[in-house]
Amino acid sequence: MRFRLPRPQGMHIELEQTPGRIETFYGKSGGADMTTVPNPEVIRNYFANVKIELLAARYSERLREDWGRNGIRTSYNRLYFFIGGEGWLNIDGELYYPRPGQMFILPAEAPLTFATVSANSFNKHWCHFQAKVGDFHLFKLLKLPYCIQVADMDYMKRLFERLEQAYRESGDIAAPLKFKSIFLEILTYYVEHTPPQSVRLSPSPVNNREYQILKYIEEHLGESLTLERLASAFNYNPNYFIRYFKSLFHISPNQYIVKTRIEKAKKLLLSSDCSLERISETVGMERVYFSKVFKQLTTFSPSEYRSKNNMKLYKV
After folding, report:
1. The CATH number fitting domain 12-201, selected from 3.90.1150.10, 3.55.30.10, 1.20.1070.10, 2.60.120.280
2. Which of 89, 81, 93 is nearest to 31 (CA)?
3. Where in the chain is the domain with CATH 2.60.120.280?
4. CB atoms within 10 A of CB 86
5. C-beta of residue 46 within 8 angstroms of C-beta of residue 57
6. pLDDT tens-place string over residues 97-114
7. Which InterPro entries match (predicted)?
8. What are the angstrom distances between the C-alpha of 258 and each of 18, 64, 110, 218, 289?
C-alpha cells in the first residue's frame, strides 16, 4: 500500500545546521560500533570478489505525491540519485532530506521509511541491485556512508542514463557486461568520494574471523605457515579450513600466502637495499624457490624487478 507519511517534526533547525542529513531520535550514529581495519586487504578482497546483479534501473520524474513506505526491509539494495523535489528518507534510524546531487545507497535488509512532503515530489534516477560476496550481502559486511554529494551532476546523469538503457536492452547478449561496467563505475565513484576513514567493516562474526586470519598470516609471514598450523590456530579441521578460506577469499590458503609473500618482497626490493637472501628469508621462502615464484608472478627476476623500478624512480 502506498500512503502519505507525515513530515518528521521538530527537525528543521538541525537540518539547516547539517545540510541534507539529520541525526534522529533513534540515537544511532552509524559508526559508533564499527570495526576499524588497519589493513585494507579484507576490503579490497570484497571489492575484488563482489557479484553484481541488476534488478531494475529507471528514471522517475515527479513521483506520486503519496509515494512512501514505512519500516520495510528488502532483500536487495537500492541506489538513488536525486535530481530535484523534496521528501525524506529514514535509513536504519538515520533521517535525511535528500537534495539535488546527493546519491544514496540503501542497503539490503536495513529498515527503511521514506515519503514525500508536498506536491513537489522527487525526481530521481534509481536502481535496485544485488551485491554479494559469496552468500553475504556486500553492505552487511562493509559499511559505507549512506549518502555522498556528487560534484559533477551531468557526469552522473549520463552514467545513470547509460545504466537505464542497458537495463532496457536486457535482451542484448552484451547487456550484462554493459550493466556491470557502468554500475561499477558508479560504485567506484561512490567509494572514491567517501572519506577513507568512513569505509569500514561491519562488526559481524564473519568479518572478525576473516580479519584475524589475515592478521595471523601477516604477523607470521616469515615463518613456516603450513595448512595444519593455520587450521590449528583457529580450531578448524584442515580440510574444512581450506573450504572455509576459499569461501571467504576465493583463493586457497597456500595461494594467498604465496601472493602475500611476493607482494611484501616487491615492497622490500624497492624500499630497502637488503640482499635477495635477506628478503627471501624475511618473507619465509627459500632463496631459489623465492626467485622462481617471483618470476612466475611478475615475469621478472627479483633483481630485474628492483633494477627496472628503481630506474623509473630515478627518472621521475
Report:
1. 2.60.120.280
2. 93
3. 12-201
4. 17
5. no
6. 999 999 999 999 999 999
7. Homeodomain-like_sf, HTH-like, HTH_AraC
8. 48, 56, 38, 12, 11
